[in-house]
Amino acid sequence: MMDPMCFVRANVAAMSGYVPGEQPAPTRQLIKLNTNENPEEPPPRVKQALARGLELDLRRYPDPSATRVREAACRVHGHGLAPDQVVVGNGSDDLLTMIMRTFVDPGDGVVAPGPTYTLYAVLTRLQGGCFKEVPWQVEGGLPVDALIAARAKLHFVVRPNAPTGHVVALDEVARLCRSVQGIVVLDEAYVDFADDHGLGLLADHPNLVIIRTFSKSMAMAALRIGLGFMDRRLAVEMHKVRDSYNINAFSQLAAQVALEHHGDYRPIWDEIRAQRRRLTLALRQRGFVVPDSQANFILAQVPVGGMTGVEWLEQLKKRGIHVRHFASDPRLADKLRITIGKGVELDRLLVVVDELLAG
Ligand SMILES: Cc1ncc(COP(=O)(O)O)c(C=O)c1O
Q1: Whole-angstrom distance, CA of residue 110 vs CA of residue 114
Q2: Which of 92, 120, 247 is the pocket-test mutation for ligand 1 (most atoms within 8 Å of CB)?
Q3: Helix and strand tally (H, E) in the chain?
Q4: pLDDT for 304
Q5: Angle at 107 between CA 106 and CA 108, to 5 degrees
Q6: Model pLDDT for residues 119-133, shown as the tens digit of each residue
Q7: Which residues contact 59 (CB under 8 A, 6 or more apart)?
Q8: Percentages of the chain per state (helix, strand, coil), in multiples of 5
Q9: N or C: which end of the chain has fewer CB within 10 A?
Q10: Torsion of CA 32, 35, 36, 42, to 10 degrees
């Protein structure tokens, strides 16, 4: 009998999988600031919708193309978008997989300015494509010329970027779309915490795909919902490659209701922005280097001459506070990515930081 391992595709066997942030068992004491979830619950109407879901006929498959979610998304987001320009994903990671399957042939180039979301490299590799990272410009600007020079099929830009939280100029994204012979994916996972967004670019740039997620600003990570906006011809192709029933009935119901009550989220986002400012200033006062962020997290460089990034991670964890550290990227070794939690959670974080700084 041959070892079944010899049937595994070589590129799968050779790669390490994506490592998601730790999801510790919930306890009352735990302060979870490591995976950029929303610290607040979604509006009560969303949970009520889930309760109504129990009355659904569970024997039946859900709507294969999440029609009501797509319609509600267009009503909320405007910009002349029509439901046939929207594809719904089981989280935006599902949309990323669909994008890879739709556009990337073995050997095709995929490029992104980095550091950025590490899943792009993993998915490219699974698809047999070649991933290349180009550095951000010194001030964080979009390296448009380097991205063009990469001559890739697919270009990823995260705005606000993860894990840095910075945003690039929308004009530069538009220039990228105009200049490349390929698809530009604008990943707007954190855009509801930012000052502006790119949906207005879609009308003039048919090679642009914009993706959003309900996991962060919409406080629904457990339900796995993402939205992709694009030229309707691209949407037809994306529908072909997805799992036929990729969004379960409960998630469709909750997503639709969340979109219908989109305005209920505004106070939550305003509070997160206010807490982001407070944490940024408080950590700067304590010797951390913290660039401005437009996301629901900050990237804080730990004070020079004290504990290393990984030591901070461990010490905070021992005291019940989980943050994110990217050990495998030397550029991020001295940095912690900290999700903006509730005010009281950040109060506690600052108390613990003070204790640790005092030794
Ligand atoms: C930049 C970026 N894109 C996409 C995702 C995926 O989000 P989800 O699959 O939960 O929608 C994340 C999650 O952390 C992210 O940081």
Answers
A1: 13
A2: 92
A3: 12, 11
A4: 95
A5: 95
A6: 999 999 999 999 999
A7: none
A8: 45, 15, 40
A9: N
A10: -70
Mean pLDDT taken over the chain: 96
Is the pLDDT at 27 greater than 80, yes or no? Answer: no
Residue 140 C-alpha to ligand 1 middle, in angstroms? 20
Percentage of residues of the chain with pLDDT beyond 70:
99
What torsion do the CA atoms of 200, 159, 189, 350 make, to the nearest 10 degrees? -140
Mean pLDDT, residues 326-355: 97
Q: Is the CB of residue 100 less than 8 Å from the CB of residue 211?
A: no
Which domains are delineated in the chain?
24-41+266-358 (3.90.1150.10), 44-260 (3.40.640.10)
Q: Which residues contact 233 (CB under 8 A, 6 or more apart)?
A: 206
Residue 175 and residue 184: Cα distance in Å, rounded?
Answer: 11
**Res 19: pLDDT:** 82
pLDDT higher than 90, residue 16? no
Which residue, 256, 202, 252, is CA-closest to 232? 202
pLDDT digits (tens, 9 = 90+) for 256-302: 999 999 999 999 999 999 999 999 999 999 999 999 999 999 999 99
Is the Cβ atom of 117 under 6 angstroms away from ligand 1?
Answer: yes
Smallest CA separation from ligand 1 atom 15, residue = 189
pLDDT reported for residue 24: 83
Pocket test of ligand 1: the residue of 18, 36, 93 to mutate, having most ligand atoms within 8 Å of its CB, is: 93
Token pair, residue 98, equals: 């669909």
Tell me: the pLDDT tens digits for 193-225? Answer: 999 999 999 999 999 999 999 999 999 999 999
Question: What gap in Å lies between CA 348 and CA 31, rounded to an integer?
Answer: 9
Please tell me the distance from the alpha carbon of residue 209 to that of residue 87, in angstroms, as a whole number. Answer: 10
d(CA 316, CA 145): 41
